[in-house]
Amino acid sequence: MPGPLPRAKSNAWWNRGWPYRVFLLRELSAVAVAVYIVLLLLLVSQVREGRGAFNDHLDLLENPLFWIIHAVILGFAQLHTSTWFRAVPKSMRVKLGGRAVPPEAMIFGMYALWVGASLVVLAAFLVEW
Amino acid sequence: MTTETMTVTLEVFRYHPDTDSEPSYQSYEVPYREEWVVLDALNWLKDEVDGTLSYRWSCRMGVCGSCGMMVNGYPRLTCNAFLREFMPGPIRVEPLRGFPVERDMVTVLDDFMEKLTDVKPYIIREEEQSLDDGEYLQSPSQLADFKQFSMCINCTLCYAACPVYEHEDEFLGPAVLALAQRYNLDSRDQGNEQRQQLIWADEGIWDCTFVGECSAVCPKDVDPAAAIQQAKVEATNNFFISLLPFTPPGMGR
Ligand code: SF4
Ligand code: FES
After folding, report:
1. What is the ipTM of this complex?
2. Does a structural domain hold residue B249?
3. Contact B123/B183 with Cβ under 8 angstroms?
4. Contact B17 A5 (CB under 8 A)
5. Domain A13-81: which CATH class?
6. Which is nearest to B107 in space by CA: B64, B156, B47, B74?
């Protein structure tokens, strides 16, 4: 008598639908962010080597390969950020005056901060020092 | 064709523990009715075609939590999954994923039940208040802290959506952790410490990788993923507070 069917485990779970695929991409986005940090540290280390080395490094970054790498990293960074924003109201309950702040308001607030911070960075680039 | 004469194909998972060494799928033509849910079609099959078909159900109104099955690969309460959502079919009906199968769509729930019991899902008091002192009072705001997590009907759809539960035998899983959190957040409860050891262990909240599908499939908007992430934040805060040489006011457990 075979008895109950043992529970099945499948490694194909990540391909069962978009939510699972997006989850994997979200986890993978941390790698993209880490790669960017390495690229940034390399750039900073070239500053220490002096102007010549720094300019050589900038020339290297003009290479289409680096453009592509940066575009991919930017895409992952967007995913990373937006998925984290969505996660925050789940992991925190914020109460104001005894009432819970609705998740949408928290997410909106974080996007507003993001846009604000991006504008400050943009301004820093555009303003002549 | 009028809806009176229309039919739809149901591909039903079949497994009999006494005779089958492997599961199989059997196709049936069932009448299509606009107001029928998948459970109605199964009941029609059982009454009219094959009385051996086995599955659980009771309330037919999304309350008892017993009619959960995979419908076209997605965990659903079959009493609120309308045939019309899946037309023109075929509609594949299988037992909830991640559980052993007793027979056809009947899953073995022992593991879930044991884990549920382990987290003590009831109000624990260090000392009971005497009856003369009346009931334990609770403000609407205190009720709101846990109400969402108390709506769980133990349908286990969230388990069927969770790849961690599928792969980690020890993982307590979404509904059990949400229910533990439900009692931990209840102002009348004092059992936090008793539950902590289990919940804050690896097989508790830390096995969760926050896929989040448990909350997406939950028919009662319990949001177990939120319960688990909140417990993670609490456990982390608690860890850092325990490193301090003093207990900040209002922070001690
Ligand atoms: S949390 Fe939702 S999906 Fe999970 S058992 Fe409870 S009601 Fe069902
Ligand atoms: S039969 Fe009770 S929830 Fe579906």
Report:
1. 0.85
2. no
3. yes
4. yes
5. mainly alpha
6. B156
